Amino acid sequence: MSDILKRRVFNIHQGVTQIPYFKNLPCKIKDVDEGWVRVAFDITPNLCNYRGIAAGGVLAAFCDTLMGMASRSLGYQVTTLEINMNYIRPVHPGQQLIGVGQVVHHGGRTIVAECELMDENGKVVVKGRSSFYILRKYDD
After folding, report:
1. Judging by DSSP bridges, how do beta strands 96-106 and 110-118 pair with one another?
2. pLDDT, tens digit, for every residue of 50-63?
């Protein structure tokens, strides 16, 4: 891993552990490379809706965070322009999801990323796609 990528990973990790919003999302960074990230996410009862399954908004927030991390691993500060979610299977409390996010397009002003959330058996439960506006390049 290059020194630049190490700094980017450190900054992503700092954001997850120090920013109050991210403290409420039980994310654990498992692996990061340029334009790619893998994160674990524990589903707890307080993240579930009245039907006892993970709330769609919580899963969307996780996907947004995951795809944003993949974008930031390229060294950019970004903001979400739009997000599209496909909920494929219900997610129950006690499950741990593994999310993989990757950049699929890096333009001059925008980045497009995709993600998949998988259950313990490797089955895809959610797919997401998002466009991000590049606010600025971080100083590497």
Report:
1. antiparallel
2. 999 999 999 999 99
Say what the pLDDT of residue 2 is.
74
Report the 3 state secondary structure along the chain: CCHHHHHHHHHHHHHHHHCHHHHCCCEEEEEEECCEEEEEEECCHHHECCCCCECHHHHHHHHHHHHHHHHHCCCEEEEEEEEEEEECCCCCCCCEEEEEEEEEEECCCEEEEEEEEECCCCCEEEEEEEEEEEEEECCC
The token duo for 81 is: 């322009």
- pTM, to two decimals: 0.87
Residue ranges making up the domain that contains 95: 3-137
Is it the case that residue 17 has pLDDT exceeding 80?
no
User: CA 9, CA 97: separation in Å to the nearest integer?
Assistant: 21
* Total number of domains in the chain: 1
Residue 19 confidence (pLDDT) = 64
In the sheet that holds 36-42, the strands lie side by side as: 27-33, 36-42, 96-106, 110-118, 124-137, 76-87
Q: What is the CATH number of the domain that holds 18?
A: 3.10.129.10
